[in-house]
Amino acid sequence: MKTGIDIPLLKHGDSGNFLLIAGPCVVEGKEIVMRIADHLVNLSVKYRIPFVFKSSYRKANRSRIDSFSGIGDIRALEILAEVRHRFSVPVITDIHNPEEAAMAAEYVDILQIPAFLCRQTDLLTAAARTGKWINIKKGQFLSGSSMKHAVDKVKDSGNERIMLTDRGNMFGYHDLVVDFRNIPVMKALGVPVIMDITHSLQQPNQESGVSGGMPEMIETMGKAAISVGADGIFIETHPDPANARSDGANMLPMNKMEDLLIKLTALRNTVNNF
C-alpha cells in the first residue's frame, strides 16, 4: 500500500502490507456487525494490516423486489459510525444517488461508488464535493484505462482522494472474468488500486434472481491480485454466508479469514522484496 495515504484512523500504514477493505455485504443488524468488526480488527492488529471496515447501509441494486435491502438508512449508518468510534477504524459504505453523498459522509470516512454507477457524473461529483475519500468500483463493462474519465471527474471537482477497485468484467450473461492487466493499467492513473476478490467471483443474472458465486476461488484470486501489485484487497465476509441477507454465495466464511490473511501477508512480503 502507498505510505502516507491519509485515510482517517487508518493504522499500520508503514507496514508495507496491503490495504484490507472487509466486512459484511450489508448491515443486517448491530450485533452481527460488531461481531464481524471485532474479529477483523483483531486480525488487522495481529498481522499489521491497514484495515477499513466495509458494509452497505442499503442495497439498492437487488435482482428482486422481495430481496433484503436494509434495516433503514439512518439506523444502518449509525451502526457504521459506532464501528468507527468503538474500534477506531475507518469505515466505507456505498452511495447510489447524489442526494445520499452528504448524508452518508456524516457517518463514514470513505464513499464507495458501485460498479454499475461508475460513469454517473452527478454521483461522482456529489461524492467528490464531500471531501471524503472516494472508492470507485470499475464497471463490469469497462476497461481499466477507461476509468481515467471517472478519476478525472472527481479530480475536476476538487478532490484528489481517489482509489479504484476492480471487480471483474462480464463474461457472457452469467459469469465474470478478471483481466489482471487492469491493475497496473489503473495504477498508472496515479491512484491506489484494490482488487475485489469476492464480487469478481460472482455469477450474476441467475434465473432464480439470486446471484451465485465461487467462494472456493477467493484465495486464488487474492494471491493473483497481490502478485501483480494490487495495493489492497476488498473482501466480503460473514459468520454464516448461507444465511446472509445479501451475496452469501460469494462471501468468505469469517472463520477462514485468518488463514487467508496469513497467506496473503506472506505473499505480499515476498512481492515487496522483489
List the keywords.
274 residues, alpha/beta, TIM Barrel, 8-stranded parallel barrel, two-stranded antiparallel ribbon, 13 strands, globular
The CATH architecture designation is Alpha-Beta Barrel
Question: What form results from the Cα inertia axes?
Answer: globular
Per CATH, the class reads Alpha Beta
Q: What letter string, H or E per element, gives the SSE order?
A: EHEHEHEHEHEEEHEEEHEEH
On the 0-100 scale, what is the average pLDDT? 91
Number of strands: 13
Please outline the major beta sheet: 8 strands, parallel, barrel
Task: Indicate the proportion of strand residues.
Answer: 15-25%
CATH superfamily assignment?
Answer: Aldolase class I
The number of helical runs is 8
Instruction: Give the termini distance in whole angstroms.
Output: 15 Å
Structure description:
Helix content is 32%, strand content 18%. It has a single domain, classed as TIM Barrel (Alpha-Beta Barrel), CATH 3.20.20.70. Helix 1 (30-46) runs parallel beside helix 2 and helix 3 runs parallel beside helix 4. The mean pLDDT is 91. The strands form three sheets. The protein has an eight-stranded parallel β-barrel with strand order 1-2-3-4-5-6-9-12, surrounded by six helices. Strands 7-8 form a two-stranded antiparallel ribbon. The chain has helices at residues 30-46, 73-87, 98-105, 121-129, 148-155, 182-187, 218-227, 257-272; strands spanning 19-23, 51-54, 91-94, 110-113, 133-137, 162-166, 169-170, 176-177, 193-196, 202-203, 212-213, 232-238, 252-253.
